[in-house]
Write a structure and sequence with these properties.
By secondary structure, this protein is an all-alpha fold. It is built from 6 helices and no strands.
Length: 201
C-alpha cells in the first residue's frame, strides 16, 4: 500500500470517528451514561486524534513522494516521409536550375534586394517551392516508378519548376538592375565631386 493510499485510509477513519462524535449526541441526547465506548468516543483525546488523522492523511495524499507520478504525454512523431522518388531527366534539370537560382538569391547582399523583390522571393523559397515538392512527392508515391503516370507527373513538376525559375530569374535581374543603378549614381557623384581632366582611360 502506498503512502497516498495509507493517507486516504487514515483520513477516512478519522473522518468517520469525527462524524460519529457529532452524530451520537444528536441521536441519544445525553451520552454520559450510554457506555464506555461512547464515553471514549466523546473524549478529548479521540477528538484530537481524529483531527490529526484527517490532517495527516490529507497531507500524505497530497505530498506522497513515492506515489504514482503523472504520466507524461507521449509525443507521437509523424511517420517519416519515404525516400524521394527518382525523377526523370526533365525534372532533374528543372530541379538543378531552380536550386542554383535559390542559391544565387541567398548569396545576394541584403542591400541589393529591394523589399518587394525580397517578399516575392521569400514566398517562392519558403512556401511555393516546398509546397510543390511535397505535393509532387505525394503524387509520385501513388504510382509505379517508371510508369507513364510517373512520367506525366514528373513532366508537370518540371513545368511548374520552370515557371518558378522564370520568376526568380526576373527578380534576380531586377536586383542586378537595382544594384547597377546604385553604382552608376555613386559613380556620377564621384565624377562630379572629384573631376580629373588628366585621368587616363
Amino acid at each position: 500500500m502506498t503512502i497516498r493510499a495509507q493517507g486516504h485510509f487514515l483520513s477516512t477513519i478519522a473522518f468517520v470517528l469525527l462524524a460519529m462524535r457529532f452524530a451520537v449526541p444528536a441521536v441519544y441526547g445525553d451520552v454520559s451514561d450510554v457506555g464506555p465506548c461512547t464515553t471514549l468516543l466523546m473524549s478529548t483525546p479521540v477528538l484530537i486524534l481524529s483531527v490529526l488523522g484527517i490532517i495527516t492523511g490529507g497531507l500524505a495524499m497530497i505530498f506522497d513522494p513515492f506515489g504514482a507520478q503523472p504520466q507524461k504525454i507521449r509525443q507521437t512523431l509523424p511517420p517519416a516521409r519515404g525516400q524521394a522518388p527518382a525523377l526523370n531527366s526533365e525534372a532533374q534539370v528543372a530541379t538543378a536550375q531552380i536550386d542554383k537560382l535559390v542559391a544565387r538569391f541567398h548569396d545576394l547582399p541584403e542591400d541589393a534586394v529591394p523589399m518587394d523583390v525580397r517578399i516575392e522571393c521569400d514566398a517562392i523559397v519558403d512556401k511555393h517551392l516546398p509546397g510543390l515538392r511535397s505535393a509532387h512527392h505525394d503524387a509520385r508515391s501513388t504510382v509505379a516508378a517508371g510508369s507513364d503516370d510517373a512520367e506525366v507527373l514528373d513532366h508537370d513538376f518540371a513545368q511548374s519548376l520552370n515557371r518558378l525559375s522564370a520568376t526568380l530569374i526576373r527578380l534576380l535581374d531586377n536586383c542586378g538592375e537595382n544594384a547597377r543603378g546604385r553604382f552608376e549614381v555613386e559613380q556620377r557623384f564621384i565624377e562630379m565631386r572629384h573631376p580629373d581632366e588628366g585621368l587616363s582611360v
